[in-house]
Each structure stands twice: as C-alpha cells, then as structure tokens.
Structures
1.
Amino acid sequence: MAKTITIGGDLTVNRLGFGAMRVAGPGIWGDPPDPSGARRLLRRVIELGIDFIDTADSYGPEVSERLIAEALYPYPEGLVIATKGGIVRPAAEKWVPDGRPAHLREACLASLRRLRLERIDLYQFHAIDPRVPLEESLGEIARLQSEGRIRHVGVSNFDIDELARARRIVEVVSVQNRYNVSDRSSDAVLAACERDGLVFIPWSPLSKAPRDGDAGARAALERWAVRRGVSFSQAATAWLLARSEAILPIPGTSSVEHLADNAAAASLRFTPKELSEIG
C-alpha cells in the first residue's frame, strides 16, 4: 500500500483511496445490475488495506452511500468515509448544483442516516451553485460542523480564487478537482494544497475528454506503461502518487479485478528521468 497522508491534522489514511461513484448503476443512476456484487467489491476494498472511501449523495442518487453502509457497517476502525452534498439529480443525465443552505442541511442529515454515522469525517461541498453566494452555502456547512455533524470540511470543483474565498468562511482541509496527466488545469490549486497542508483529491484520473490539453504527456505515460508491462490505469494512478505528496488518488471501479489492478499501482515507482519525460 502507498504511504500515508493526514487529513485535517488528525485523520491518517493510506495514500490510495477508493472512489465509490461506479458502484451505482450505469450512468451513475439507480442500483447496480448486481447489488450483491457491489457489496462484495466494497468489502474487498477494505481487505486490500484501503481505508479512505469517497462518495456523494448524488451517486445513484443515494445508492452509493446506501451500499457502503450495507456492505461495511459496523465500520472497521480507522475507515474514513468522505461524502459530498450540493448536487442534485433530477434525471439520469442531469447534474444540477444546489447550494441553498436548507438543501445542504437536508442533504447532510440524509447522508448521515444512509451511512449510519453520527458524524461525517470529511464532508465536501460538491460544486458552487451560481444562484447562491458561496458564503451562504459554506456558512451552512460551517454551522453543521459546529453542531458536531461534520468533522472536517472539503470543497470540490473549486478554482484558486474560490478556494481562497472558501477558506475565509470555514477551515478547508481538502480539495477534490478534476486532474490527470493530460489535464493539469488545477495545478495552481494543487500548489496551494502543497503549500498549506491541504489534501488534493483528483477525480477523472484516466479521462480522454477533448478538454484534456496535453496529449503528449498522456502518450508518454502510455509508453511507460507498455515498457513496465502494466495497465494504463495503474500507470495513471502511480503518476498521481508520484506527482505530489499532497495527492490522495481515489481510482474507482465496479470490478473486483480492476480494483486489484488499481491497488497495485501503489507499488510502482518512476525514476526522475521518467517523470521528466512525462512532464
């Protein structure tokens, strides 16, 4: 397993987590085709020594959180479950920000019930709602924290200026943004996390979306994977681990086989020359 990382000064976990988005059904909508298989997958996560699971109330919606509790409660000592609120799913293809304080309170309390927790270790504001001032949204999350319902607060899909605003409202311990070898648009946010001791949690580590700007870096990493005889998903996760000690990768899958493949990335190492070639 990878080295450890500490979240918020008091939560130390292995520096390779699990993203539980894909335990829900196709399109991250509804129940998975094989719910018992999804529960087996989640139990295997723990068996592999992974002790950080990231989810959100919008995954399913509600399905991922419910399956985590069904599979793992009562939770093993040391397991950290991070969830998110602030996006609603009115239809399978829709992801709509909702940062109203009343919604965030309702969402947090519902996540507590589904996860069978008295306090959420890391509660992340999933996305800024352009209709609601950031100060109002995070102000409500800060109130939930002061009530003891949230241990630590994180943010997701924030740029560097938004992160600075957020940190004036509440203590932020983590940022979860899109980041991979060919999309490094959050480099400034990552640098701020490195400087100030925040944890950076990258999502979409394998994306080939058109907005991914550096095709050359991806191609170099693909060549490295071929030379080492490993899958690209392993290489992409290993690159994130090597990129910065502030990064906590959370590769996700619906397959036990792919889970083992992802976990094996923690043992891969790059030479300085190899990292320089990838950029």
Note: The first strand starts at residue 4 and ends at 7.
2.
Amino acid sequence: MTQAHDRSLPRSPLAPDLTGQAGVTLIELMFGLLIGVVVVGAAFSILTMTSKGLRANEQIVDTQQNVRLAMELLARDLKMAGFGNPGVAVGNCTSSIVPSDNTNTGTDSGADSVQVLVPTTRTTGANRWTLSAPTTSGGITSITLQPGAVTDMVNSGLAQNSYISIGGATTVPVTAQPDQTNSKLTVSIPPPLWFQQEDQVYLLQCIRYRIVPFPDATGLCGDPSLQGAGSPCLTRGVAGVTTGPNAEAPIAEGIEDLQLSYACDGCTAFNSGIPDHIIDDVNTPAGFGQEDFLSNVPWTTAPLTPDKIKLIQIALVARQSKNDQGFGEKSQALIGSAAMAVGPAPSDHTLPADPNHRRRVLVKTVETRNVGL
C-alpha cells in the first residue's frame, strides 16, 4: 500500500512565506498618484513664482539703472553748457541752453526737450585732443595736435567752420578743411594769446536730448520686429543730424518722460532784470523755493532769456521695457502704475495710469556753471 504524501511536512527554508501578503489596491494606487501630482504641481508653482519674481526684480534693477544713467548724462552736459561759448550760433544752438517746453502756454501733453552747447574732447591716449607743440605770442594761424587727434575729431563731427575752444581760454572757428595727415587745424587767434604744449582742445557741439514716445514707429528705440521694441527711450546727439556718428541715438531705454524747469538770476523786473548773483524770487511765498522754478516759458523775450538760467530741475520717468506679468502661474499683469504728476509741485505734466508697467521717477537740480559768461 502506497504511503500518502504528508502535507504537514516542514517547508523548505528557501521558499518564500506568502502568508498574510496582499497586492496594492486600485484605491491606494490612485491615492499615491494624487499625492505625487500635488507635490509636482506645488513644485512647479514655486518654480514659476520664483522665475517670475526674478524677472520682475531684474526689470526693476534695469529700470533704475536706465534712469540713473540718463540723469547722469543729462546733468553732466547741463553743468558744462556754455563752456567756451563763442557768442554766436553753433549749429542749432543760438545760446548755451535752448529750452523747449512741450507746451509753452499751458499744461504739457508730452515730454520736454533741450539743446545744450557742450564741449567734446579726449583727454587720454596717443590721439588725445591736446597741442603737440606750444604756440607763440605773435599770433596764431594754425595749431598742431597729437598724431591722430584731428582724424578723431573729424570722426566726432569736426569740419570747416566748426568752433573749437583751446584750454577754455579762447574759442575760434576752424577756417579751412582739417589737415588730418599732419594733424593741424587752421585757426585765427590774435596776439597776445599763446598756449603751451598739452593744452586741451575742445570741439563745441549743439547736443539735443529728447524723448521718443511709445509707439516708436521709426524703430529708433529698438528693432520693431523684436518683442518689447518700440518702448520709449531718451536720445542724445547733435541736433538735426540723422546719420553718422553724431546722429541722435538712444542712450537709455524705457525713459518715458522728461520735464525741465528753470530758476534764473535776472529774469524778473526786480533790479531791472540785472543779475545780482541771487536766484530770483518770482512767486509767493517770499524766499526762494520750489515755486520759483519756471516752466511754460518761451525764453526768447527779455528779461526771460536763457543766459539768465542758473538752476535746472530735471525730472525723469523710466518704465519697465516689458509688461509686468505678476507672480502667479497665469500670464496676467498684476502690478502697474497709477497716474502720476511728473516732478515736484507745481508739476507741468501728468502721465496717465499704466496697468502693465511699473515706473521709477528721479529728480535732480543742477547748477549751470558757464551760462551767461
């Protein structure tokens, strides 16, 4: 009789113990997937918010840098306005400063502009704009500059009939075509003036600052085919020049508004319009204050003439070059700028609200050094 198999025999120690084990249920699997989706979604949201926050901060920094750069360049030229003024028109500049208020008879509807007679020079390098040899007191018919200096000056706009200043002591026209080969300029300086080697030579130019508003159909502020192009910008260049190295060109993007007001000495009937080295008190209350800065003035009728200007208040507004998309996942503008009066009271221009761009305002008062001399 065959012995039956004993099912109670000991199990092999190598066999797995499946007692009490079960598979993952569908509900557990779905719950785990849900948790994973929530974690990934939260991480993606944090990444999106961080990325947008970084871009927003970068735009803020860029906007602040742009308005500071624009202010530095404009203030520098206004301080030097009138240096070496020959007393005659140079280019489009009939005086050291030619203010151009947007609306001379009322509240402005746009940005101001200004033309400034400023000196250009080069102080370093082998081709620096300095005399390579001294002159004599017997009268001067030509001057010799460092090798390459005249060529550099021609590239910067020097031509026959341009005005140059030598050391700030005398200003004369260049009466013949510049001699680039020998680095000489033909001038006429009567005795007893004489100059030493390395005395600085300056080219006088009529520089204009103006705002190109949005939209910029000409593409001057940027390539119109690129995203974000056509934003407003501040341009600088020789007034009226449209081609070449001296053409008006953008120097700071995103500059939306420029407002200028002026305080003067000798602009009022008090003291017969004669400058007395005291800034005019033209409005109440008594004593010089913000209310004594003038705008909406043609500056062409005595005693209100540019040579009386002693202080210039500059108000610049810069805006972000691209839309501000907020910090959420949606591409939606959440931060903008309310309507704002440009410059200290009394303001001459109010910018409308902009729901898509943040703005930065910078105001600075500059003292003119050479106007009226």
Note: The longest strand covers residues 201-212.
3.
Amino acid sequence: MRLRADLTLLIVSVIWGSAFVAQRIAGQQGSVYMFNAARYLLAALVVLPLAFRVARASRPTRQAATPAYPREQFKWMFIAGFLLFVASALQQAGMVYTTAGNAGFITSLYVVLVPFALFFGWQEKPHWMSIVAVVLAGVGAFLLSTGGRFQVRSGDALELIGAFFWTLHVIVLGKYASKFEAMSFSTGQLIVCGLLNLGVGLIVEPMMKFNQQLMFAVVYTALFSLGLCYTLQVWAQRHTPPADAALILSLESVFAVISGWLILNEKLVSIQIWGCVLIFVAVVLSQFKEWNSSTIAHDHLVEGR
C-alpha cells in the first residue's frame, strides 16, 4: 500500500508539473482570483458526483446512528480549503510579477519546510536522511528553476509566503484528512477554496475575458491538476508520511521544466539537468530510510524466531 501511495503521488507530480504551463498562460493575462475560482469550482463539480456515489456505496456498511460526514470532517475540510485558497492565490499572484523559474523554485521550498514544521509544530524529530534529502531537494530545485542565477523579483515575496501555506496544507492532509473518506474531503476543500477565490475576485478583480488559451488553462487544471490530483493526494497521504509525500511531490518542478521544454520550447541547460538529478536522488533517499527500517524490523523478527 505504501508503494502504491508513493507511485500515486508521483503521478500527481507529473500532472502538476504539466499544469504549471497552463498556470503561466493565465498568469500572463493577469488573472488570479477569478481564474482560481473558475478552475476550483469546476473541479468540485466534476468530483461531486463521484463523492455522492462513494457515500451511497458506503451506506450499507455504516451504522444507522453514524453520520455520513462527521462534524470533525467539515472542520478540517474548511481548514484545508482555506490553506489551499491562500497558497494558490499567492502562487498565482506571484506569477504575474515574477518569472516562472523563480516561482517554481520558491514554491518548491515547502519540501524543505515540511519536516522542520513537523519538528517545531508537532515535535516530530526528522530522520537524518530526511535532513540530507531536503537539502539536496532545495539545492536541486534552485539549480533547476533558476539555472543557478536567482534574481529577486517583486512577486518573490508572494511565492515565499505561499510556500509556508503549501507546507501547512501538506501537513493537514497527511495528519488530519487521512481520518476521513478521501473523495468527499477532496470535494469539500475544492468548494471552500473556489468560493473564497470567487468572493475575493468579485471584490478586487474585473470579470475574466475568456479566450481559447484561458479556457484551456481553466479546463485542464480543473479536470486534472485539481479534480483528479487533489483526490489522489488525499488518498495517498493516508498511507505515506507528510515529509516523504512533500519530497515526492517536489518532482513537480522537474516535470514543469520538461513540460516547458516540450510545449513552450524553453531551453534546458546542463545545470538544470543536474538540478533534476539532485531532486531524484533526494526522493530516492527519502524512501531508502523506509526500506532500511523495514529491513531492520524484518531482521529483528527473524532473530526473535
């Protein structure tokens, strides 16, 4: 189950990386809140029938006195949706004022922040391999996203603040969303995020002028990046630790660069390839500590016999 969850997160990172191209297109047109509102609410509409189907299927196995959705679930759906709203809004706003490379690098810092947030907020001491892995991932993301030349832009502060909220979102999914049914939880956080974006957008932004490129960005990110991936993420993080999930999802930056190269004809220099290598090494290292722990546990079990 752990391997299946990690492979699921790998698929999520591939789709998120390709969706970065679509977000760039929308960002270049200056759309932030209304773009996010359109794609998150569309994603919720797509996932909602599946959530109802799962709820109906679980009805025979649920006791009559047991509510379909406990009150605690609504609480954490709102918290997750709020964190998603802030993180995605800051990321999209940052893309208007900074380069895609800077945005990708700064956003990926949540990979480095997760184990330290777990340490300071939940007193979970990180494994030494996790520390090495997050350092490698941070260096790799820097080389990959910036080509080794980081120039401060006006939107970088927005991306940096957003990285903290992505960190909290990953932790909330790993620690609290795992207690509830994945499909309904995913739908709930998408609705909360979409409505918050819509409310702010109606106040501070003009209505979007849809064109072919913007429509593609909304539909692609809604169906795949949000509707599919957030549902898969909620399920997968029930079976893998938050720190390791963050490292696997950091491969998003690798696939974003590959997608930019294939779709937008962006150049990939040698130092960026080295960045990809470092991120892959970091992800493998994060998994190795689990394999090593399993081996030790197996050896102790054999010795006990």
Note: The chain is about 80% helix and 0% strand.
